[in-house]
Amino acid sequence: MPATPMPLSEYLDRIEAACRPPREWTMACETVMETVGHVLDDHYGTSGPKIKAQGSYVQSLMIRGSDLDLVLYRKGRSVNSCSKNCVKRYLTTTTDAVVRSLNHLNGDVKARVKQRILHARVPIVKLVFEVRSEMIDLEADEPSSPSSAASTTSSSSGNSDGVSIKAVKPQTVEVDMSYGDEQRGECDAVIQNLISSGGEVCHKFVTLVKLWGRISGATDSFNNCLSTFALIILAIYHFKSVDMIEKRKRKGENRPIDVAFLLSSFFHWVAFNFHCEDVEIDVEEHKMHSRLPSTYCPMFIRV
């Protein structure tokens, strides 16, 4: 007897669930940020540099294989007031000091420098952190998927209170550290708010579009393609447009949009409504507008 084909909506749900990072890894990211913050305070004092997250972590759009994007900043100091050489030097010395301090402390968090990319438009230092295992409550922190439980759990048992716990294997967190202003990451917070306002369907849809961008190479920055941020903006814009149209059709009836329909209409919109080879996207904080092609084009999408 032939197997019953899986409904497309269920198949997409499984893909979206499988691409989420394990809860243990997300907790490791939180530990890294907290530990690095303490090290900076101890090394430089309360008036020294601080860190904050930006990118997919703030957007709540992290998928397996994502890096944690962190920004070094100093309160009241603008990155524009520093020369590029000053930024490179400050970024290098500060990250080196963090790595030395963490390894000297011999605590639960270890770090090493993976790569310094100082000649990029935004200089970054790639760091690798290893966070040692901790015992966590299985009931409070269910894994995102069965595969995540298998890949991160070394053992599980019950304590004297009858609560199930598990020992988590050491988690590796790759960090892209840059130097910027205190305002960095605010646009990512706006993205997170827009996605949250659309509910679970919006989050699933945008996550799947982001995953497609990574797998297909549509967001390959080395090939002059669309940035991940711009692809997310397009996905949110499409969701809001479709949601508005569907609500009018349903006359206020509260029925969620099918994710498969959203994906199909999104790719149709991208492929057939952009009547040119390259589409230029210009995104500014708190507004998005179209502009005529020019020699300056920070983001592209190939259609």
Automatic annotation (TrEMBL):
Poly(A) RNA polymerase mitochondrial-like central palm domain location: 8-140
Region ranges (Disordered): 140-164
Residue stretches of biased makeup (Low complexity): 143-157
A Gene Ontology molecular function term of the record: nucleotidyltransferase activity
Pfam families: MTPAP-like_central (PF22600)
GO annotation, biological process: RNA 3'-end processing
InterPro entries: MTPAP-like_central (IPR054708), NT_sf (IPR043519)
Name the UniProt record assigns to this protein: Poly(A) RNA polymerase mitochondrial-like central palm domain-containing protein
Species whose genome carries this gene: Perkinsus olseni (Perkinsus atlanticus)
Taxon lineage: Eukaryota, Sar, Alveolata, Perkinsozoa, Perkinsea
